[in-house]
Design brief:
alpha/beta; UDP-galactose 4-epimerase, domain 1; 2 domains; seven-stranded parallel beta sheet; two-stranded parallel sheet; 13 strands; binds NADP nicotinamide-adenine-dinucleotide phosphate
């Protein structure tokens, strides 16, 4: 039975990946941070086969201890401060966890190492936010980085650290440059989920409007369930490498609003949407669209869920959850 260790197992991707690896027959271990983390019970109930281990990406000795204890075949480093807006307000913490956390996890893998015949394989969750003020469209593995947030800068550090450990120590370390991916498990702070949840609440009469920032930025949005499979596929290759994972389509936040409000039966959303400069980023990323040709050709990976299907999946889930919560408030 193969053994996988996931950092960030309480996050959107960690939950999908733990589920996927369990169905692939893996014994899955998830790193949980903090004392009495409130999300432990939720992930344990969702996936009873998952084993939780205590550690923190800020604490190298905890990571070494976990890698020694778990003896994983594969490590998926998904833990991060991942919300770009927060990274502007907590830049140092973002560099510490999203950036240096990668170095610490790789150090733990290098030091413990795995067996000679079975060295530990490593996946790093890189991001399209590294492209930032894009130098070319669409973006590929060769596109230069120009990050526009402390989050993007920290991810560039993590990305190059992964590349360096691959080249310097021969570690099977791969980096997935994933474009935005969403789903019903997306945090409510992210714009897609904020929109689908607010539209569901407006439909149910629980909320009057929604306050957003800039509506013009365009993103290449896919479904998280499709994207975690690409992470696993990368670690099954003979050689480690970097891969762009994206749908190849881009949509603005206005288009997201069009689709979500149409699902709720409203053709004109302008009366429901307010804009507030507090939600603008100090430096924005205007357009992201990825070219995942390499992943398609080398991994055989293709996204299955379209943008419209994704928004519908999220809206339907929010409608169900919010109506249940309204019926049983406690
Ligand atoms: P997420 O939902 O925000 O989850 C972040 C995870 O990181 C949570 O499990 C969180 O644990 C954990 N974490 C935070 N600080 C930590 C620390 N000090 N030590 C250990 N774990 C810590 O993120 P996601 O959407 O699943 O994304 C997964 C990864 O992919 C992240 O690295 C993200 O930056 C990257 N990524 C995401 C996207 C996307 O569109 N979703 C795109 C590209 C790259 P708690 O629950 O305890 O806070």
């Amino acid at each position: 039975m193969k053994r996988a260790l996931i950092t960030g197992v309480t996050g959107q991707d960690g939950r999908h990946l733990a589920e996927f690896l369990t169905t692939q027959g893996y014994q899955v271990f998830g790193l949980i941070r903090g004392q009495n983390n409130p999300k432990s019970a939720m992930v344990a109930a969702e996936n009873p086969a998952l084993e939780l281990v205590d550690g923190d990406l800020r604490d190298l000795s905890s990571l070494i201890g976990i890698v020694e204890q778990v003896q994983p075949d594969e490590v998926y480093n998904l833990g991060a401060i991942s919300f770009v807006q927060l990274s502007f307000k907590q830049a140092e913490l973002t560099a510490e966890i999203t950036g240096l956390g990668v170095l610490r996890m790789l150090e733990a893998v290098r030091i413990v190492g795995g067996t000679q015949n079975n060295p530990i394989r490593f996946y790093q969750a890189s991001s399209s936010e590294m492209f930032g003020k894009v130098r070319e469209t669409p973006q590929t593995e060769q596109t230069p980085f120009h990050p526009r947030s402390p989050y993007g800068v920290a991810k560039v550090f993590g990305h190059y650290t992964t590349l360096n450990y691959r080249e310097a120590y021969g570690i099977h370390a791969s980096s997935g440059i994933l474009f935005n991916h969403e789903g019903p498990r997306r945090g409510l702070e992210f714009v897609t989920r904020k929109v689908t949840n607010s539209v569901a609440r407006i439909k149910l009469g629980l909320q009057n409007n929604i306050t957003l920032g800039d509506l013009d930025p365009k993103r290449d949005w896919g479904y998280a369930g499709d994207y975690v499979k690409a992470m696993w596929m990368m670690l099954q290759q003979d050689e480690p490498d970097d891969y762009v994972i994206s749908t190849g389509e881009t949509h603005s936040i206005r288009e997201l609003l069009d689709v979500a409000f149409r699902l709720a039966g409203y053709d004109d959303w302008t009366r429901f949407v307010k804009q507030d400069p507090r939600f603008y980023r100090p430096s924005e990323v205007n357009l992201l669209i990825g070219d995942a040709t390499k992943a398609r050709e080398k991994l055989g990976w293709v996204p299955k869920v379209s943008f419209e299907e994704l928004v519908a999946m999220m809206y339907e889930n929010d409608l169900k959850e919010e109506s249940e919560r309204a019926r049983h408030p406690h």
